[in-house]
Specification:
Elements lengths: L10 E4 L8 E6 L5 E5 L12 H4 L15 E3 L5 E3 L2 H19 L4 E5 L5 H15 L4 E3 L6 H11 L9 H5 L2 E5 L3 H4 L1 H14 L2 E5 L12 E3 L6 H14 L5 H7 E2 L1 H11 L3 H8 L3 H13 L3 E5 L1 H4 L4 H14 L9 E4 L6 H7 L14 H11 L12 H9 L5 E5 L3 H4 L3 H8 L4 E6 L12 E4 L8 E4 L4 E5 L12 H11 L11 H13 L18 H5 L4 E2 L26 E2 L18 E6 L15 H4 L6 E4 L1 H7 L6 E5 L4 E8 L7 E5 L32 E8 L3 E7 L10 E7 L2 E8 L3 H12 L4 E7 L2 E8 L2 E10 L6 E2 L12 H6 L2 E2 L5 E3 L4 E2 H9 L6 H8 L9 H24 L1
Parallel strand pairs: 6-7, 6-14, 8-9, 8-12, 9-10, 11-20, 12-13, 14-15, 15-16, 21-25, 22-24
Antiparallel strand pairs: 1-2, 2-3, 4-5, 4-16, 17-18, 18-19, 21-26, 22-25, 23-24, 23-26, 27-29, 27-32, 28-29, 30-31, 31-32, 33-34, 35-36
The structure holds iron/sulfur cluster (SF4).
The site of iron/sulfur cluster (SF4) has 14 residues, from helix 1 and helix 7.
Length: 896
């Protein structure tokens, strides 16, 4: 394991995955790898890290990296070109298209993976110098509804609280958040509060997730029910005389109208239960807990945001906090948990098409202010196209040139397949990327090699407004360059050299901080005036700091709004009456299920980084669909079999997991697989393009869908050092295992076909041996007596194990390689504890044999759950389920 950094001073940096923003200490090994540990001094994590952060050292290899600028040739092949040629070409083609079609014919699509400095430069070029606001980001798919909700209520995109509130709350409410998997370190903080201070945890989610397993009260809400639930809560708070009229009168407006709307949506507990699909007793218990707890933090995440009613859901939550004055104090407040490492930084620089820089909007005053600060020759004066609209404009041919940076929209957008086809309409499609190939890169005209995490310098902002440094500890491979450098070079070649003369990221940060302070005078929340003159040395040494950082400000309090002071014209918060909740699209007899999408514990987005780690790959090695047992029975689906999930937009084939954590009538699929990692599991293809009217965020949790069994006669696996291409009729999914790639297969092609396939793929790779026995076909290639690659296919109902006997071996002397031939390999088994590679089967056996029935005992016996803690919730769930199964088995035996 490379998770300990001992003895020597390492490089302090920040994790590139989720919005928790954990501080890391990295110790490079001098060979391109590094040991990773949590930074004890970082206030986001105090040394804790999760399985993804702990495995970062395994993801630093150069495999698949884009090393040089590449230009696609007329024959579709890529040819290496110099940076000068590439940058000139991008600048010239963008300029020429703007001259021909106007500034709104071009667009940038950015990413919450970019650093703030990258984001700032791209946003400045497009909005101030090209003259279009067509700059949007994959954060639109992640948390745009929170931004819109904040701006409607607070007049600014302000997260009022801090992570310390999670330590001090009496009641933590998690809405649409599987924090145990998606924000694991924060979830451990919540669990610590629960065990030390007896905080109560309420989880509101259609699925009984690992997070829900830890709840004191779990509310399995119907899809789309959040607005009704929080309207019901507001009404109940009023009826129970639990409102803070002093706060409402002094610091808010619009309360009575909002309460009246809430009454029309959810007038009492019975109506709330009816509108949310919850039991009345559970609704009453939640309302009673909220009323009785002064220190309440309500955290919300993708389950709230990724909705065509997401902004109303956010405001329905905020309304309850404003009405009780529960905001901006220790242990109190609404709290948006951002998904990406720098979603917040992107918001700060205006990386969204409907914002300008430094939390300013498109009011004439703001446009004028930013224009004067930038000395911008061609300032955008109105909002640009949000992500889904932007790609629809590409499809309609309105956008002619697109530059995508650090994201994979051909996987992640709704109707991803149609969007990927639309990219072919572009006159110019530029992609800045780390990798040579992915679903998006494969259609680009021009590829620009970008420096990756660990190779570049800058800042990121986490969910609690804490700015942390990302620091380089590796040299970029080949000719890879930081994103800010690439954009600034293009800007210079477009004729804007004076405004883009940055030499270091510190230059950009100082300008960004100065803009936040420019004509601010306390009228805007985002203020880094205290950092506007930071020296290069201080920037290099910058400790994590929460904004605002006002010049001369000695105040330690970093929370907002305890005493009002909102950023609306009258400085009052605005209650927002939500629209009566209704999902955009009804289910039908053709598509009778609701399709819910989300993340899994050990993977990140489209797996271009996390998929390189063998230990992360084995938690959930194959794309899957979770189905309720009753639905599975009705559809003829068995656990471990395969199913086709279809919507009006596309279809995928996934492995079935039958789970009573899943609501009847709902299906859950993870978002991570793409055409690069599976044959038919790109979930974006399935998702409807409905968007929230305020935030533009797409609905990713409720597309009407159908499910049906798919049968294959054989299953198998291949281990190889090189990527392979499989026959069309074969289902496959790719995962990393130690030093090679493992493909899981499901197929109806017979053993003879696989004999030919194995001979072909292993030809020229050493000695070949194979065997057909009992319907199972095994083949292996041996180089210098080492197994170089192997293939095994066999009947679906039988355990699969690659094995050759010595007699099968082609070895001339029958010695060393014969011994190797006896080696047998199974497809890698699912892992529960990624740190110590503890397999699911081992945990089940340990519980079943009766020696281990508690978390502590499992930790002692198997070490599972004793390092990063990401698997603790899953271990607890396994203990509970295995005990239940044992009890049921015993009861069954007695009945017999
Ligand atoms: Fe990284 Fe895990 Fe921390 Fe998120 S919780 S920032 S993934 S270490």
């Amino acid at each position: 394991m490379s998770t300990r950094v001992e003895g020597r001073q390492g490089v302090r940096t920040t994790c590139p995955y989720c919005g928790v923003g954990c501080g890391l200490i990295v110790q490079p090994d001098g060979r391109g790898g590094a040991a990773i540990a949590g930074d004890p001094a970082h206030p986001a994590n105090f040394a804790r890290i999760c399985s993804k952060g702990a495995a970062l050292g395994e993801t630093l290899g150069g495999e698949g990296r884009l090393l040089h600028p590449m230009l696609r040739q007329p024959d579709g092949k890529l040819a290496r070109i110099s940076w000068d040629v590439a940058l000139d070409r991008v600048a010239h083609r963008f300029t020429e298209i703007v001259e021909r079609h106007g500034p709104n014919a071009v667009a940038f699509y950015l990413s919450g993976q970019l650093l703030t400095e990258d984001y700032y430069v791209a946003n400045k070029l497009m909005k101030g110098f090209v003259g279009s606001a067509n700059v949007d980001t994959n954060s639109r798919l992640c948390m745009a509804s929170s931004v819109a909700g904040h701006r409607r209520a607070f007049g600014s995109d302000t997260v009022p609280g801090t992570y310390a509130d999670l330590d001090e709350a009496e009641l933590i409410v998690l809405v649409g958040s599987n924090a145990a998997w998606c924000h694991p370190v924060l979830f451990q903080r919540m669990m610590l509060n629960k065990s030390l201070r007896r905080a109560r945890l309420v989880v509101i989610d259609p699925r009984r997730t690992a997070t829900a397993e830890e709840a004191d009260l779990f509310l399995p809400i119907a899809p789309g029910g959040d607005t009704a639930l929080f309207c019901g809560l507001l009404v109940h708070l009023a009826e129970a005389h639990a409102l803070d009229y002093r706060y409402i009168d002094a610091h808010t407006s619009g309360f009575e109208t909002t309460l009246a709307r809430a009454r029309s949506i959810a007038p009492d507990i019975a109506a709330t239960a009816c509108a949310t699909g919850l039991a009345s007793a559970d609704v009453a218990r939640f309302f009673q807990l909220f009323c009785a707890s002064e220190r309440v933090v309500t955290c919300y995440s993708q389950g709230v945001n990724q909705s065509a009613q997401g902004t109303d859901k956010v405001n329905a939550i905020i309304n309850c906090h404003l009405a009780t004055g529960r905001i901006g104090r220790a242990g109190i407040g609404p709290f948006s948990l951002t998904g990406q490492p720098n979603a917040m930084g992107g918001r700060e620089v205006g990386g969204l098409a409907n914002q300008l820089a430094a939390h300013m909007g498109f009011s004439p005053l703001d446009v004028d202010r930013v224009c004067r600060f930038w000395k911008a020759p061609c300032m955008a004066t109105r909002e640009g196209l949000k992500a889904v609209q932007m790609f629809e404009a590409v499809a309609r041919g309105k956008i002619k040139a697109l530059w995508v940076m650090a994201t994979n929209p051909a996987v992640s957008l709704p109707r991803a397949g149609a969007m990927r086809n639309a990219l072919k309409n572009l006159e110019l499609f530029v992609v800045s990327e780390n990798v040579m190939s992915n679903d998006t890169v494969d259609t680009a005209h021009l590829l620009l090699p970008a420096a990756a995490w660990g190779e570049k310098d800058g800042t990121v902002t986490n969910s609690e407004r804490r700015i942390s440094r990302q620091r380089a500890f590796l040299s970029p491979p080949g000719e890879a360059r930081p994103d800010w450098w690439i954009v600034a070079q293009v800007a210079r070649r477009m004729g804007f050299a004076d405004a883009f003369g940055y030499v270091t990221p510190a230059d950009i940060f100082r300008e960004h901080a100065a803009l936040s302070a420019f004509e601010n005078d306390g009228t805007r929340d985002f203020d880094l005036s205290g950092l506007a003159a930071i020296s290069d040395a201080d920037y290099d040494a910058l400790d994590p700091v929460q904004w605002p950082v006002r010049a001369g400000d000695q105040v330690e309090e970093r929370r907002f709004f305890a005493a009002g002071g909102f950023f609306t014209p009258d400085r009052k918060a605005q209650f927002v009456p939500p629209e009566p909740p209704a999902l955009k699209e009804e289910t039908t007899s053709l598509y009778p299920f609701r399709l819910n999408t989300g993340r899994i514990r050990d993977q990140w987005h489209s797996m271009t980084r996390s998929g390189l780690s063998a230990r992360l790959s084995m938690h959930r090695p194959e794309p899957f669909v979770e189905v309720h047992p009753a639905d599975a029975r009705a559809a003829g689906l068995a656990d471990g079999a395969f199913a086709r999930i279809s919507t009006a937009h596309g279809a995928c084939i996934m492995k079935v997991i039958v789970s009573d954590g899943q609501q009847a009538g709902s299906l859950f699929v993870p978002i991570h697989w793409s055409d690069a990692t599976a044959s038919c599991a790109r979930v974006g293809d399935l998702v409807a393009p409905h968007t929230d009217p305020h935030s533009g965020q797409p609905e990713a949790k409720a597309t009407p869908a159908a499910i049906a069994p798919v049968s294959f006669s054989l299953r198998g696996f291949v281990r190889t050092r090189h990527p392979l291409t499989f026959p069309q009729a074969t289902w496959w999914a790719r995962a990393a295992v130690a030093q090679c790639i493992e493909y899981r297969l499901a197929t109806s092609l017979g053993p003879l076909h696989w004999h030919d396939f194995a001979q072909r793929v292993f030809a020229g790779r050493g000695r070949f041996a194979d065997r057909l026995a009992g319907g199972t076909y095994s083949a292996g290639a041996f180089v210098d007596d080492e197994l170089h690659g192997c293939l095994c296919v066999g009947p679906v109902d039988e355990p699969l194990q690659f094995a050759l006997s010595a007699a099968d071996g082609p070895d001339e002397d029958g010695s060393a390689s014969a011994r190797r031939l006896h080696e047998s390999i199974r497809a890698a088994e699912p892992v529960v504890c990624a740190c110590f590679q503890v397999k699911l089967d081992s945990v089940r056996k340990a519980i079943a044999c009766g020696e281990t029935s508690t978390l502590v005992q499992i930790g002692k016996k198997l070490r599972a759950g004793t390092n990063c803690g990401s698997c603790i919730a899953e271990l607890k769930r396994l203990i509970k389920h295995e005990r239940l199964a044992a009890t049921q088995a015993l009861a069954g035996t007695r009945l017999e």
